[in-house]
Amino acid sequence: MEESEILDIVNGTDAVLFQASRAEAHKKGLLHRCVLAQLINSRGEWVLVTQASDRQDAGQLVVPVGGHVRAGEESGDALMRETLEEIGFDIFEKKFIGKTIFRRTVLGRDENHLFHFYEIYSDIQPRITEETAGFEVFAKGQLKKEIQQNPGKFGDAFYFTAKTFYPDLLLP
């Protein structure tokens, strides 16, 4: 089902060019939209999830919500759907942070994603799903320290979004 999912193929300014299956987009490296969201609780703590062993960034910490935006779907609607699917709740406040292109080859796919990046705010504890192996909660200062001391604990996509949207996290 997932590989046959139809996506909007976009250009660098997020204008839709045409539609293709997810499998074709990943085979050909076609730019398409994904939503990502960093979960932050009312104490300002950051929640990250450990990816399951069959996922990209397996065993590493990443932002808790990430998934494809279907053809014709608004990114806010995709965010609601993905948050429910990936961490088990759909009641939260959200803030759009920005867009950026992230391209890499992983698990035999040419992922060329236009990330629509959000912060979501909630005190609901994430549910563990087949995509996750666990989660950790960090105060921002604690997260910075953990990044410095254990850089291999965090996935490539996490580093990319941190560099793009939270560069102070990567400074000593």
Walk me through what this model shows.
With about 170 residues, the protein is α+β, with helices and mostly antiparallel strands. The chain has a single domain, classed as Nucleoside Triphosphate Pyrophosphohydrolase, CATH 3.90.79.10. It is about 25% helix and about 40% strand. The chain has helices spanning about 20-30, 75-85, 140-150, 155-165, and strands at about 5-10, 15-20, 30-40, 45-50, 60, 65-70, 95-105, 110-120, 130-140. Strands 3, 4, 5, 6, 7, 8 and 9 form a 7-stranded mixed sheet that branches. The longest helix has 13 residues, at about 75-85. About 30% of the residues are buried.
Short description:
This protein is α+β, with helices and mostly antiparallel strands.
Topology record:
Layout: E1 6-10, E2 16-21, H1 22-28, E3 32-40, E4 46-51, E5 61-62, E6 65-68, H2 75-87, E7 93-106, E8 109-121, E9 132-138, H3 140-149, H4 156-165
Parallel strand pairs: 3-8
Antiparallel strand pairs: 1-2, 3-4, 3-6, 4-5, 4-9, 7-8
Identify the notable features of this structure and list them briefly.
172 residues; alpha+beta; globular; seven-stranded mixed β-sheet; Nucleoside Triphosphate Pyrophosphohydrolase; 38% strand; two-stranded antiparallel ribbon
**Mean residue pLDDT:** 94
Q: N- to C-terminal separation? A: 44 Å
Structural class: alpha+beta
Low-confidence stretches: none
* Strand-residue proportion: 35-45%
In total, how many domains does the architecture comprise? Answer: 1
Number of helices, counting only DSSP H or I runs of 4 residues or more: 4
CATH class: Alpha Beta
Please tell me how large the radius of gyration is: 15 Å
What is the CATH fold-level name? Nucleoside Triphosphate Pyrophosphohydrolase
CATH superfamily, by name, is: Nucleoside Triphosphate Pyrophosphohydrolase
Largest sheet: number of strands, sense, barrel closure: 7 strands, mixed
Give me the CATH architecture, please: Alpha-Beta Complex
Share of helix among residues? 10-25%
- The total beta strand count reads 9
**Could you give the order of the helices and strands?**
EEHEEEEHEEEHH
Shape: globular
